[in-house]
Amino acid sequence: MEYRTFGRSDWKVSEIGFGGWQLGGTWGKVDDNNSVETLLYAFENGVNFVDTAFAYGNGHSERVIGKALNEWGSGKIYVATKITPIMDKGKSLNLDNNPSIKDSYPNWHIREIVEGSLKRLGVEQIDLIQLHLWFEDGIINQEWLETLNELKKEGKINKIGVSLADIRPNQGLELAKKGLVDSIQVLFNMFEQEPVDSLFPESYKTGTAIITRVPLDSGALTGTWAENTITQWAENDKRRLMYRGNRFKETLERVEKLKSLCKPFYPTLAEAALRYSLYPKEVAVVIPGMRNKREVELNLAISDGNNFNNELAEILRPYRWKHEFYN
């Protein structure tokens, strides 16, 4: 396992972290005992960074991770979780409507989520707390930051971060330029390449750590999908909604093209995609989801110190695809 410095901190984090969304049960049926075993197997093999959120199964992912942490006693695991914005039915969280950060993250709500996360995770301090959605007026209206700094002084959190909405990396540019937070989490993969243009360079200047998510584009970039794959997902599987209509067919066509481009360089598209997610020097950690020990092994195998092929990186530039399937 290779380790990278987490922004301007002294943390050395595994470049492959553990994304915990799937542990909450949103992506199909999960077995909690298997999830704990998978987490412990990842920890045993050098993973020391795990990312979760209250929103992942209303705290279920946090509770599962808490069980694994309770059984683990062999070294530091950095735990990152997130504060979901308050869901006020009278006001839209649609970013195009410029929602207010003050309304979305009031003091009492931030404290309530943090206290709940501490209990669910079974820890005395959260290593990294992140806002699960960023509203750009937070640059000016900084009550959210004042509250988090208070919690920091109280010893309940260590570092502060922000998770940007999908396909909106430039939303975090001012945040990166000012260095207001310790980390920024953003979607980045072979399709969603935009963060390399401005967000990554600006974050690097201020020592803001970059966490990249969805390296395999919710499974599409594993290269294992076939025409009938969508029919094999349970009705309540989030992917059935995401890839409705013509979305699945279009995605599959684009994936086949990427397969052909990557074949001369890497044995599988999944390996190429994971290596690609780590190639920018600004990236501190990537957080793929892992359901079992085999997936842990496949993900960790690419952390071998070998950089992504520069020629292929240039070849892939024209194949950007800005898409949002979580709506």
TrEMBL record:
CDD domains to which the protein is assigned, alphabetical: AKR_AKR11C1 (cd19086)
Annotated NADP-dependent oxidoreductase domain residues: 15-304
Domain of life per record: Bacteria
UniProt xrefs under Pfam families: Aldo_ket_red
Name of the protein in its database record: Predicted oxidoreductase
Organism: Arenibacter troitsensis
